[in-house]
Structure to design on (111 residues):
């Protein structure tokens, strides 16, 4: 797991992944034949938009809650043939800055 990030319900954040070779050197682009898939467990909390380079994303927050962001790779394995595991990040969305007060009432009751 890459970690976690905490945002308010009125924020966006850019992010992305780096593909490393076996010597831990980064690729400049997604290698031919490789597909990265980015998925949010709850797009109403954290919606993901993939940028044209396929490595970078923008995350827009929505309602309060928690979402897990996962990136899955296809078309690439380790030198020993084993699959490269998904990478996961946790996103927590909380209220933005207080701005107003509003009265609320329940249903009237007869005495």
């Amino acid at each position: 797991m890459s970690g976690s990030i905490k945002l308010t319900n009125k924020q966006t954040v850019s992010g992305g992944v780096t593909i490393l070779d076996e010597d831990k050197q980064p690729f400049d682009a997604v290698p031919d034949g490789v597909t990265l898939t980015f998925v949010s467990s709850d797009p109403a909390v954290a919606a993901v938009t993939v940028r044209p380079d396929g490595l970078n994303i923008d995350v827009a927050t929505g309602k309060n809650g928690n979402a897990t962001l996962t990136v899955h790779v296809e078309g690439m394995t380790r030198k020993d043939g084993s699959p490269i595991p998904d990478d996961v990040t946790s996103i927590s969305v909380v209220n933005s800055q207080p701005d107003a007060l509003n009265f609320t009432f329940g249903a009237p009751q007869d005495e």
User: Anything to note?
Assistant: The domain at 3-18+30-94 is CATH 2.60.40.3450 (Immunoglobulin-like). The two ends are 58 Å apart (CA to CA). The CA atoms of residues 76 and 82 lie 9 Å apart. The mean pLDDT is 92.
